[in-house]
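Technical annex B. To support the medicinal chemistry partners, we prepared a structural model of the target in complex with zinc ion, based solely on the information shown next.
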Amino acid sequence: MASSLAKAPVPASKNGRLCPTYIGANYLQSGPMTKCTLGFQGNLFRAFPPINCYSSDPKLATSHLQLARANDLIDQIKLKVFPAWRGAGEGHGWGWAQCVRWEAGEGGPSRGLECPLWCVLCRGGKERLKQACQRGRGVLCLSTDMLSLRLPQLFDIHQVPKVFQEDGIMSGYRHPRSSALDCILSSFQMTNETVNIWTHFLPTWYFLWRFSVLCSSLDFLAESYTWPLLVYMLMICLYPFTSSCAHTFSTMSAEARHICYFFDYGALSLYSLGCAITYGSYVMPDCWVNSWLHQHFVTIAVGNSLFCTSMSCFSRFVELQFPQKSKVLRTAAFVVPFLFDSFPLFYRLLSCCWGSCSPSEALASHSYHLLFAFLTCFLFASHLPERLAPGRFDYIGHSHQLFHICAVVGTHFQMEAVLTDMASRKDWLTSHSVLPSFLGTMGVLTLGILLNVGIIGIFSACLSQMPRQSTSTSSGAHLHQE
Ligand SMILES: [Zn+2]
């Protein structure tokens, strides 16, 4: 290639045409490499900086010697050039530098491109790039990889800071300092978080749809009997949405990751409060109605919610030093409110097993919900299946995805059970118990939200005091050095 290149026809290297070149900022700046600004003025590239172009124009190529040297270098290394998303800013600090890289021969180093490139995937963009590459190929043998527009590069476990690492997930990590826009775009790229994002984003819309149908058939404003259901429906829309957002934006920084998951835990905790409010109103066994537990059920649930959020947020602070302890704390944080909320349900199911229950259509749905809830807990705690085969389930099938799916399916059955209980027990409950009050439902939820946001605020403020290791990169994180 070197000799043919040296004799190549003079390419058009004026502004507005593609110089047949590799794209690289710091490499080969001297010699025959002459700076020119590529004039992709159309819709392909935006904010294109001056980049180095190779040109065999005799006026630009200062000597044959230098040209030959450059050609030797080009021959020695396999060139891979493709547009890279560098995100906002001037390309400092973060980016996808390794998307554009030189692949040296065996054992050679990879070179990152420290050049902010902006590539917009828009109508006709790919075609223009293809034409440009074909023009350039006549002079330089550009790799066909250049013809494919690539998404941001993903990283292996040893390339990201420890705080981002997940047990048994070996690849598919996004850049640990992604921008918000990158995070949103990454939800359309297959990463190890993509299925996590969608398995809670789509169910959010399902629950919103169910909520809107209920809004048209029930009078949530005037009928106080429906208020516990209103709280419950709001919470089952909120928790998957918050989780989806947390998974989307968790790679902006170590601090952002913690705060994202603080909100995720807070939403789950509020969901458990919503369950208690609705169970206290519709699911309580007949013989427990008006008992001490019934009267204090929601108050205790508020306490549980505070315990759940505090404990789960705290577990992130000890995660790096004591991963097992952290896991136990976090699991306990969610299991305690779940067991408490489900007490009335356990009683009803057990009394049915003993043959002394009043028949209820809802019990089957309640049972399915409990089954999926136990499965959810098991997946959360066990990290199966990726623990058995690290790296096999990075993108599809790891425990967190299954955990999301089981949680959502469980919530679906729970919603059906609550709706059935609510409708079938309405007459009995309204005649034997006081009607739910606004303060006891929406008031408690508002209080729960305020208290949870307060706890999240306190833990977020404490992040600066977190052990240094957790907010900085680990020893293997060479990304940070880019
Ligand atoms: Zn999740």
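Notes passed to the chemistry partners:
The CA atoms of residues 315 and 473 lie 20 Å apart.
The longest strand covers residues 33-36.
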